[in-house]
Amino acid sequence: MTACLLETRTVSRNFGALAAVSDVEFRLEVGARHALIGPNGAGKTTFINLLTGVLRPTQGRVMLKGRDVTDIPEAQRVKLGIARTFQINRLFRGLTVLENVYIAVSERLGIALDMFRPAGARRDVIEEAMHLIAALKLEDDTGRRVSELPYGRQRLVEIAIALGLKPEVLLLDEPAAGVPSAESHIILDAIGSLSEQIGVLIIEHDMDVVFRFAERITVMVGGRIFAEGTPKEIAADPEIRAVYLGQAYHG
Amino acid sequence: MIVAAIKPTEHLAALAFAGRHRPRVWEPAPWIFAIAFYFAFPNYLGFGTELLVTILFALSLDLVLGYAGIITLGHAAFFGAGAYTVGMLAYHGIWNEPISSLMLAAIVAALVGLGSGLVLLRTQGLTLLMLTLCTMALLEEAANLGHEYTGGFDGLASLPIPPLLGLFEFNPLYPRTQYLYVLIVLFIAFLFVRTLIYSPFGQSLAGIRENTLRMHAVGSPVRARLITCYTISAAIAGIAGGLWAQANAYVNLTTLSLDRAAMVLIALILGGYGRIYGGFVGAVAYMALAHFLAKLYPTGWQLGLGLLLVVIALFARNGILGIGEALLRRIRAKHMPQ
Fold first, then answer.
1. Is the Cβ–Cβ distance between A239 and A71 less than 8 Å?
2. Number of domains in chain A
3. How close does chain A come to B183, measured CA to CA in Å?
4. Which residue among A94, A225, B61, B158 sits deepest, i.e. has the most Cβ atoms within 10 Å of its Cβ?
5. Nearest residue on chain B to A100, judged by CA atoms?
6. CATH code for the domain defined by B30-335
């Protein structure tokens, strides 16, 4: 039995009459490589928003490392070790790649209130940012504005920012969406080289990515957990194939 | 092509970032101009003083508008708060030593900024714009109604401002002291703002401007940052207002008016916001234009200014400095070896 990093207890979220997420019991273990899959509108992103504190649950609790964080706002949860990427890029578009990553690292280190020293004088922050940029093969774009990069490269900046927060729980909302397949291995390599202590939850539609990455898969349908198991169990389940994977998939 | 393994901090773009705060060769130029102006135009030092105060005011506005992305139409609230602090303390014989009065002006304006910021900065966009306008209108009306203390509509005239450091007389007819005094204060405030915008704090303000939602997601206390920035900016605007009151030896409702808030906004947009020299270029351009247009068309000169602003808004969003930057980029691209 491994230790639990992040846990939800009968978490639900309604938008008016719509139950986007219902009674979800979920555990993310230390070192987990967990995938969350399900058809569009299954409530996956809403669930991530509940985990990160963007949304408050209508009922239920969210626990981080055994602590109830249900009422803790998003920014403070980041300080407790949760980081995420977004399904649709949310970047500092007018700033350079280096500045984007610098912001994340400096917030984590708590130096962002420093008004009297130049940002450039913090070589340690620059060095750490440059290592992340190198890990995501973005060196050639270091000094370019994010808005000038192709969408696929921008996706890599999303991940570099999240990694700059050195999270214990990393939530990736469709990290490979929009990344050319020739480059999607960069994302998997970067995630693969993360410490064993980090729990990673990935939402992904690309089944190749899911089955290459995940050691455990949760299937969500209609706001509820439909099934959970190892990739083998999920791939072999005829019901899941009918609901989600489709007949064309031969895993 | 063989690329030797270089240390990540020695990457060209990383080096550029590490040194971006270093002074450029041309940066002394505006200050040399300002000192040259003092010797070249002794009869225009009143105009020069007004110009320098406007630059300082524009600098404070640039911090919130250009760097933090806070949209405001009411920045004269802080200019007026500073001006009335100096004016009321001096007029009622409570305190009039210039430098400490200026500090009091900064503190009062900062408190107004902090108090209103705590409420206003929960909102954004059009709501924020209207609320900044309302704050300023409330202060203006308060100054109008409290005529026992503020002089009401007439303001407070003939403020007894003692010599600076006990040595340099403030002479309203030959405002040599005023000009140099304002120039020195502007320089100090400029150094502070310049340090701030290149600091990690300044970088986080740029992050808030570019994507507030992402800033929450990297764990930044966004509202606290904005309130801090708003308060600092208010203090600088208060210093500008205090200088204005000392230099002119009077204070009146125009310091709190929409005219003044709009004028500094137009000057900043004209020069280019989000660039630390935008206020310098914009204030000079605005005041020079206003001067010449008013001479040519004494009744309708503001029409010319309005048309120019429309052109800037349509074709040159980044103002005069933005045009300059675009030209430089084009020249560099042409001369770059392929």
1. no
2. 2
3. 22
4. B61
5. B207
6. 1.10.3470
CA atoms of B179 and B45, how far apart (whole Å): 6
Tell me whether residues A143 and B9 touch, CB distance under 8 A: no
| Cβ <8 Å between A92 and B218 | no
CA separation for the pair A59, B229 (Å, rounded):
37
Q: How far is B241 from chain A (nearest CA, A)?
A: 24
How many Cβ contacts (< 8 angstroms) between chains A and B? 142
B118-150: b (≥16 Cβ within 10 Å) or e: eebbeeeeeebbebbbebbeebbeebeeeeeeb
Contact A92 B206 (CB under 8 A): yes
Tell me which residues of chain B have a pLDDT lower than 70. Answer: 1-6, 336-338
Cross-strand bridge partners of residue A219: A37, A227
Phi-psi region of B311 (alpha: psi -120 to 50; beta: other; left: phi over 0): alpha
Query: Do A41 and A60 sit in the same domain of this protein?
Result: yes
The C-alpha atoms of residue B307 and residue A173 are separated, in whole angstroms, by: 48
Domain limits for position A156: 90-165
Position A1 scores a pLDDT of: 47
Say yes or no for a CB contact (<8 Å) between A142 and B13: yes
Among A104, A134, A165, which residue terminates a domain? A165
**Per-residue DSSP letter, B252:** -
Task: Summarize pLDDT for A17-50 with one digit per residue, the tens.
Answer: 899 999 999 999 999 999 999 888 899 999 999 9
Tell me which chain A residues have a C-beta less than 8 angstroms from the C-beta of B11.
130, 139, 142
Q: Does B150 touch chain A (CB under 8 A)?
A: no
Rounded Cα gap, residues A218 and A244, in angstroms: 12
pLDDT at B336: 67
Report the percentage of chain A scoring pLDDT > 70: 96
How far is Cα A190 from Cα A158, in angstroms, rounded to an integer? 12
Q: Measure in Å the smallest separation between the Cα of B78 and chain A Cα atoms.
A: 22
